[in-house]
Amino acid sequence: MNRRTFVPTAAAAAALANAAPKLAIDGGTPVRSATLRAGFWGSEFYDDKERAELNDVLDAKAPFRWYGPKPPMKVLQFEKEFAARMQTRFALGVTSGTAALQCAMAALEIGPGDEVILPAWTWHSCFNTVVLAGGLPVIAEIDESFNIDAGDIEKRITPRTKAILAVHLQGNPCNLERVLAIAKQHKLRVIEDCAQSVGAAYKGKPVGSHGDIGIYSLQLNKTITAGEGGAVVTNDPVLFERASRFHDLGGFRSQHEQQIGKGKLDWFIGTNFRMNEFTGGVLLAQTRKLDRIIGSVRDNAQRVYLGVRDLPGAKFRKLYDPAGELGTGVFLEFPTKAKCERFLSAMKAENVPAGRPGGSVILPTQPHIMAKRTLSAQWPAFQTPHGKAMRYGPESCPRTIDILSRFGGVLMDPKYTRRETDDIIAAIRKVYPAVMGS
Ligand SMILES: Cc1ncc(COP(=O)(O)O)c(C=O)c1O
């Protein structure tokens, strides 16, 4: 910049500063008079379609998935349509995302002595299901996508590593290309946890269809929902059979056997995670609405991105596939935790609440995880020499803690009106420069 350009630019900056509206937190007028709140996506779309599915089950008096006074169909039909939507050969409906993860662990025969690498920031279910299988959870850091840092995975691989739990958090696919390459090189299995990203895609293909096996949660906070519910997908008939057997006490029902031809496995000890027909009916109706829900959220997120991306210095959450992410939230990075906190407080005062990344926990900092507390002191997960030597705690994930302390964002909703997305844009445009300049 030379002197000729500097003088007017400096004057313009001073004028802009004077023109900057007073933040609500400092006594100015808030962008909105009422607080904006993101809702629960799937259930916002409930209508006569879900009602009709539920009435079918009531009228048939057939709420159990395998048999009844009339042939039950809802869970089976949901599985067929969900598999087609996720571009996999098989889908298994289960009672929750946690149950789906347990089925995935069982399908891959994860057990005592096996290690599974997972991100430090994710939901309890990820850690718990490895432990419940008898395996040892090994923690990797996250990157600025809030997902597992592929660069950190390789450092955690040992001869005992069996699988990588590639979790796609808050609608955003992780760095799958690297994860899959590492898994291939080291002959590891990949479980994709798509609980928080139902319907997202990576390089044009739905998440869940890239690894060996994928799982989804269909609980209230997820893209589509029946209150509770989960699904497992895979292209591998043996993994499907083992997951199906595990979810139904070890047996294999004819409705599933028909899908793979003759089963290859024998009975083994399983549990009961069977989905009921009411849940199956609601999820069938919701699956048919999935693209509409996603389309609306993505449009809203896109509007916000376009409305704020020119803010000088603005850095956003890393997206490995911007076209495939759901747009669950628009997150900005701050140089310090203090600036991020100021942004969150100031946005709240504008009645457009922003928050830190959410819906997960920093696993290694949870007291019961640091204490390796299991139901029985003899539980195998932590009884091996490596299990005994394993140390969790904040010192195992400093980068994760730092990243999560410096990102703040606004959550999206498929039903936000244009006015509401305009308010989000206006609030960010008002608050972000003030916080960064302070
Ligand atoms: C990443 C992740 N995995 C698994 C689950 C478990 O799903 P559910 O609550 O349906 O058991 C969740 C739930 O929020 C989750 O966020």
Brief descriptors of the model:
Aspartate Aminotransferase, domain 2; two-stranded antiparallel ribbon; about 450 residues; 16 helices; alpha/beta; single chain
Can you walk through the features of this model?
There is one protein chain. By secondary structure, the protein is α/β, with parallel strands linked by helices. The protein has a domain at 48-286: 3-Layer(aba) Sandwich (Aspartate Aminotransferase, domain 2), CATH 3.40.640. The chain contains 16 helices and 13 strands. Helix 8 links the parallel strand 5 (161-167) and strand 6 (189-193). The longest helix has 32 residues, at 277-308. Residues 1-17 have low confidence and may be disordered. Pyridoxal-5'-phosphate (PLP) binds at residues 96-98, 101, 122-123, 125-126, 167, 193, 195-196, 217, 219, 230, 359.
Question: How many helical stretches?
Answer: 16
Note the gap between the termini: 24 Å
Helix and strand composition category: alpha/beta
For the CA atoms, what is the radius of gyration?
24 Å
What's the pLDDT, averaged over the residues?
Answer: 95
Q: Strand arrangement, largest sheet?
A: 1-10-9-6-5-2-4
Work out the strand percent: 5-15%
General form: globular
Residue stretches low in confidence (pLDDT < 50, at least 5 long) are: 1-17
The CATH homologous superfamily of one domain: Type I PLP-dependent aspartate aminotransferase-like (Major domain)
Query: Cofactors and ligands present?
Result: pyridoxal-5'-phosphate
Q: How helix-rich are the residues, as a percent range? A: 40-55%
Examine the coordinates and then state which fold CATH places here, giving the name of the CATH topology of one domain. Answer: Aspartate Aminotransferase, domain 2
